Amino acid sequence: MGIAVFASGNGSNFEVLVNHSRQNKWIYPISLLVCDRPGAGVLKRAERLNIPVLSESPKQYPDKGAYEKRILEHLKAHQIKRIVLAGYMRLIGPTLLEAYPDQIINIHPSLLPAFPGKNAIEKAFVHPVCVSGVTVHLVDQGMDTGPILAQVPVEIERGDTLEIFEQKIHQAEHRLYPETVQKWIAGEIGLRRVEMKHHEEGK
Ligand code: GRF
């Protein structure tokens, strides 16, 4: 069962996922990297790790639908069953959402629903909060709004600079994402929100 990772930037989460899976007999085989930014750091990592890449800018296409159709062709050719977003700076559109219903997850560097969208680490840091964290969630049409699968808190301690806090967030991501992807693939993760909805309906 093939997985595609979508990334736009540095790619540290992509590399951690590939290494984790590889060290565990490809427990979730990552067979494709999709990257929307030519020159992104993640492309070098994919080359070094020997993972096939689809790297095309959406600017080459008339609209999001056409771009996603092109991606979809590649996903089908690689027999991709699930998609893992890791720093992919683009909303997923209807073409991919309909082709992969509840089969796309994302990692976000805050405790959602707090601080959705871009620059979540900085936003948490400049707010008077003591705890932020990391969230893994299913992807829907919104911006970081899908049902939550896993979360871990990360404290903002006295004396933390933004750089230190960022490092702590990334370390938490690198622990949480591989473990969550593994459980998700194995069907071991419950959707708390769905369970809560059923609970409320049963009242
Ligand atoms: C991570 O902080 C992730 O939560 C966010 O984008 C960042 C990607 O980092 N969605 P990297 O490219 O994996 O190093």
Describe this structure as you would to a colleague.
The protein is an alpha/beta fold and 203 residues long. It has a single domain, classed as Formyl transferase, N-terminal domain (Rossmann fold), CATH 3.40.50. 40% of the residues lie in helices and 21% in strands. The radius of gyration is 17 Å and the shape is globular. It binds 5-O-phosphono-beta-D-ribofuranosylamine (GRF). 5-O-phosphono-beta-D-ribofuranosylamine (GRF) is lined by residues 7, 9-14, 86-87, 107-109, 173. InterPro entries: Formyl_transf_N, Formyl_transf_N_sf, GART. The active site is at residue 108. It comes from Thermoactinomyces mirandus. (6R)-10-formyltetrahydrofolate binds at residues 64, 89-92, 106.
Task: Draw up the topology in text.
Blueprint: E1 2-7, H1 12-23, E2 30-35, H2 41-49, E3 53-55, H3 64-77, E4 80-85, H4 94-99, E5 104-108, H5 120-126, E6 131-138, E7 148-155, H6 162-185, H7 192-201
Parallel strand pairs: 1-2, 1-4, 2-3, 4-5
Antiparallel strand pairs: 5-6, 6-7
Helix pairs in contact: 1-2, 1-6
Bound molecules: 5-O-phosphono-beta-D-ribofuranosylamine (GRF).
Residues 7, 9-14, 86-87, 107-109, 173 line the site of 5-O-phosphono-beta-D-ribofuranosylamine (GRF).
Catalytic activity: N(1)-(5-phospho-beta-D-ribosyl)glycinamide + (6R)-10-formyltetrahydrofolate = N(2)-formyl-N(1)-(5-phospho-beta-D-ribosyl)glycinamide + (6S)-5,6,7,8-tetrahydrofolate + H(+)
Site (Raises pKa of active site His): 144
EC number: 2.1.2.2
